[in-house]
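Structure request: DNA primase, Jeotgalibacillus soli.
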Amino acid sequence: MIFGEFYSITIDGGVFVNERIPEETVEEIRRKTDIVDIISDFVQLKKQGRNYFGLCPFHGENSPSFSVSPDKQIFHCFGCGAGGNVYTFLMDHDGVTFQEAVLQLGSRTGISVNVEPDKNNRSEQQEDISYKNHLEAHDLLAKFYHHLLLNTSEGQEALEYMYSRGFNEEQLKTFKVGWALPSWDFTAQFLKNKGFDLPSMEQAGLVIKRDDGSYFDRFRGRVMFPIENDRGQVVAFSGRIIQPTSDEPKYLNSPETPLFQKNKLLFNYHRARGSIRREQSVVLYEGFADVISSNEYVGHGIATMGTSISDQHIQMIKRLTNQVILCYDGDQAGVEASYRASKEITAKGLAVKVAVLPGKLDPDDYIQKHGGKAFRQEVIDSSVSLMAFKMRYHRFGKNLQTEDGRINYISAALKEIAFLSGAVEKELYLKQLSDEFDISLESLQAQLNDIAPRFTKTNSDLRKPAVQTAAIPQRRSMLMPAYQTAERRLLAHMMVNEDTAYTVQALLNGAILNKDEHQAILTYLLAFYESGHQADPGAFVQILPDRHLRAFATEVSMMEINPEVGKEELNDYVLEVLKYQKMLKIKEKESEEKEAERRKDYRRAAEIGMEIIKLRKALKR
Ligand SMILES: [Zn+2]
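Returned structure:
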């Protein structure tokens, strides 16, 4: 593999996150690289017209919907929405970081990359040497513990215990599970003999200092689970006791250290990347042991390390997929935690499903009882929509036999329904409530309108979670309303020509595009030009913050457009955009008019009627 070379640079390079590569270098390398060349290493591409097509490496498919544009130096899949420039491709395909992708292409193009320490992190640079020590110590210990568990008589009892808990040899090997001897200073002595400095090892969380200045082992007589960072380096351990005692915790984790920060680490992230891409979803557990026990059938599982999900975690997930399947414990605490996590995750634009465990089982219990295959089919693949989960959630702790309980439940459910964007989905759940509690649909609908009239009125798709699968381009544009096609055409023209961008800005005269994503791209694009960049779709997608927007931008950029566009054509598109806004306004007025009539305020209704006529006239102009 082409990665051999640069891995040797980065693996012992320590903390890469604090270093940056100058933007000019990033751009120079990108310009000297042909995206078609790079992608051809992984995908068979055939030229059709100006672009190349092939089978998408990010989702399973039989007919090619993956396209690469040599002119724009971008790729886009019309099937799953993957898209970006050459760096994005390598990051998504091989799960490497941005810096790693740049280094790799740098060595390919013969451009040397100067990695500057980030100015904000100058002090951390001096600590790099000790971090490097910490990494080496963790790596060495993980290997040693693993050897002790699998191959020695000292590890025999622990090994049998692990087998009795349902783990098999393959799982133990994949996750490099090990055994720390029940000794006070075995690890301390081992590290010392290998030349490690014990005060530094204390900082790494491996040993603890006594009052008399001597050091003892943090982990004693525990099954050791190495915790790896997003690059597969061991940065911490979790140790599980095999004979439960009253005064020791079942699991003992490394403390937070410079290398191990719980809010930035997801267990198994490194290993699961490929599966997450293929499955187009990620399974999120509460405990890392669930990841290991389910791994044989659920390769796309990750877990937080005893902490609730953080913004950084969500960012890490977002780099790979937009679909999260929550699989928390089946007890009340687990259900509460799922509800909280779903809020955090959907707030960041990701879609959530919930895998519901029967009874109060946790994933590991379920697998022990029914096996991994049943877990995959009955739990993960049968995960329910977030709405279905919320309806169940609101039943928790409510006595539906009493009137109070029923009212509380119905109003909580209606609040959730009010936030749904699809009319069909809304009706489905209203019908469900109506049937269950024998209340007429009309009165539920009336109550729904009271709760959140502004959410129930608009049919905008702003609230919809990011969509993973898209229809093929032709079909999509046929189904697309005229204003959306117009907005996309405008953006496509703006992306290839800076002057056009400013012309459109002037024509819009402060009006915003109707679709959120389109407006976001427009804003980023103008900022891109204003900071001195020239038109270049491949460079532009680089600055977009998430894959959802990138997918939009690359898809728009792949549209066939007339390069000689005139101001008149642009103006037509802008008029289409404005027309839609006027139509929305008319609809709004119409319902105000009805409302006034219902109140028997005929004077007001007539006034609104006049306004509507005026608006209609303006529309025809
Ligand atoms: Zn695809």
